[in-house]
Design a protein that fits this description.
This protein is of the alpha/beta class and about 500 residues long. It has helices spanning about 5-35, 35-60, 65-80, 85-90, 95-125, 130-180, 190-210, 215-225, 265-280, 295-300, 315-320, 320-325, 325-330, 350-355, 375, 380-390, 410-420, 465-470, 495-505; strands at about 230-235, 240-245, 250-255, 255-260, 285-290, 310, 340-345, 360-365, 390-400, 425-430, 435-445. It is about 55% helix and about 15% strand. It has a 7-stranded mixed sheet with strand order 7-6-5-8-9-11-10, sandwiched between helices. The termini are far apart.
């Protein structure tokens, strides 16, 4: 019969939609909570368990299977389709967000778990059991693969989280409507019209939501951010939001504050100038890893001896940000437009391993905090060994190391990892009013003394001889808490575990 291959197409769509909803929930939770590793793990586990519950519950459905299949499809469409907008909106307004998140994942999982068994039972009279199971399950996994590939490569970068969610809700609703024709012989005549009207209403609601998705996103982000949003875009790697308020402009990546223009100079002066003070020679070739906003490069270009700056940042949307926002270009003094600066959009880990760019006098690593495994690798022994190979013997390095006050174990894990990689390290810290006490590591390949003062003749707003010396004085509550702090390696990602445990206390 013609409807058999068409129903198999439905299997692919169902599997794709189900996995997309799971990925959306995990991504939204990572974005708003900044705790991606734990959230992804919990959501995947809850979703798979819920699918098992749904499969078990399908055994209690005895009659009107085709009608129930269409109803379930429409329920998945409306709940899954509006899942991302609802999660964004509730995060900013309720204190029990996690309960809503996990409940929604569970409900969607149960509904998706009901769908495939019902389809198999609907088709059982048309195919041998062996062919039925092999084809349905094979197509189920094909749909999952399609979803896994489409989500990061095409959907989120081009459509955003909310519009992706609503699009797949529309697909589910279309499958439900389609099912009323495919399964028409199995549905009672009096129910056909009702099912089609419900399907049409759901599809219209989701279509309106899709058209108004930007408004939904704005509404959700307006609730998340206290200041006016002047820029908000999703790249393949992150959500970039810039706000403007009484303290100036602020940059957020995946909901995490990166800087506020009111006091960012404190952070960036502490990030850059200790490396120049610790370098014994004439600094000419500088490497910046991360720092796509150009503010670290601004500080580097204050040194007249600098001949070249190589900036390696994964996200081209991030390095183009100053060209789209004149206020940020002014803040960075158009640093990325300087002819001495080369911007390379690449994974720093891969770039260090594969590209022969010569040796550098100074390296500045300004990566986001290690809140997931993809970022954790940039703080690992393997990464620091790759970095060593790109440095002159007398080179100086500064690494941003998260807060030694809020995340003490994380801070010292980075310090110990650098030492295990062959660096001699001097930890230091400074106060940045926007986000508190922040930590760094000054490192060299040879033993060295703490520099006493910044380089003479450089324009500085924050650092002077007194404040510079104070950077390297760690209070007792920021010193090494235990000799048992683990080194961060690729095969253990101890730093990410420390980071999650410590920052989760402040959610």
């Amino acid at each position: 019969m013609k409807r058999v291959p068409l129903l198999f197409i439905n299997v692919v769509i169902i599997a794709t939609c189900g996995l997309i909803y799971e990925l959306l929930a995990a991504t939204v939770s990572s974005y708003v909570l900044g705790d991606s590793v734990t959230q992804f793990s919990l959501i995947i586990g809850i979703y798979l368990f819920a699918m098992g519950v749904g499969s078990w519950l399908s055994g209690f459905l005895e009659t009107e299977l085709a009608e129930k299949f269409v109803d379930i499809e429409l329920a998945v469409a409306i709940i899954g389709g509006f899942s991302a907008p609802l999660l964004f909106l509730t995060f900013a307004t309720v204190t029990y967000f996690s309960a809503i998140l996990y409940s929604m994942v569970f409900v969607i999982g149960v509904l998706v778990g009901l769908e495939i068994p019902l389809l198999m039972r609907i088709l059982k009279d048309e195919l041998d059991f062996k062919d039925l199971v092999s084809r349905v399950l094979a197509l189920d996994y094909v749909g999952a693969l399609l979803a896994a590939l489409m989500f990061p490569i095409f959907l989120v970068p081009r459509l955003g989280l909310n519009r992706t969610s609503l699009l797949f809700g529309m697909l589910n609703a279309a499958v439900g409507l389609w099912g009323t024709w495919l399964l028409e012989p199995l549905i009672k005549t009096r129910r056909l019209t009702v099912l089609r009207i419900k399907g049409f209403i759901v599809l219209v609601l989701l279509t309106i939501g899709f058209i108004k998705a930007d408004s939904l996103t704005t509404l959700a982000e307006d609730a998340l951010f206290p200041d006016q949003i002047i820029y908000a875009k999703s790249s393949p790697y992150q959500r970039i939001v810039v706000t403007r308020g009484k303290l100036g402009h602020s940059l957020f990546l995946n909901g995490n504050l990166q800087f506020t223009s009111f006091d960012e100079y404190r952070y960036h002066e502490a990030l850059v100038h200790p490396a120049f003070a610790a370098f014994d020679g004439t600094p000419r070739r500088i490497l910046v890893l991360g720092g796509g906003d150009g503010l670290a490069v601004r500080e580097i270009l204050k040194y007249p001896t600098v001949e070249s700056v190589t900036l390696v940042d994964l996200d081209p949307m991030m390095t183009r940000l100053s060209s789209e926002l004149p206020a940020l270009a002014e803040l960075s003094r158009h640093a990325l437009d300087d002819p001495r600066v080369s911007v390379i959009n690449a994974d720093a880990f891969v770039w260090l391993d594969k590209v022969d760019a010569g040796l550098f006098d100074i390296a500045i690593a300004d990566f986001p905090d290690p809140n997931n495994f993809a970022l954790g690798k940039l703080y690992s022994t393997r990464f620091y060994h790759l970095l060593r190979a790109r440095l002159q013997p007398e080179a100086a390095v500064v690494i941003q190391c998260t807060s030694p006050f809020y995340a003490r174990n994380s801070f010292w894990s980075i310090i110990k990892t650098l030492e295990a990689s062959g660096f001699h390290v001097k930890p230091f810290q400074t106060a940045v009013p926007s986000f508190g006490v922040w930590g760094y590591a000054l490192a060299r390949l040879e033993p060295f003394d703490v520099p006493e003062r910044p380089v003479d003749g450089i324009e500085l707003r924050y650092l002077n001889d007194h404040s510079f010396a104070g950077l390297f004085e760690l209070p007792s509550d920021m010193t090494l808490p235990s000799d048992d702090i683990e080194i961060n390696r690729l095969d253990n990602q101890a730093l990410v575990r420390y980071y999650e445990e410590e920052w989760r206390r402040f959610e």
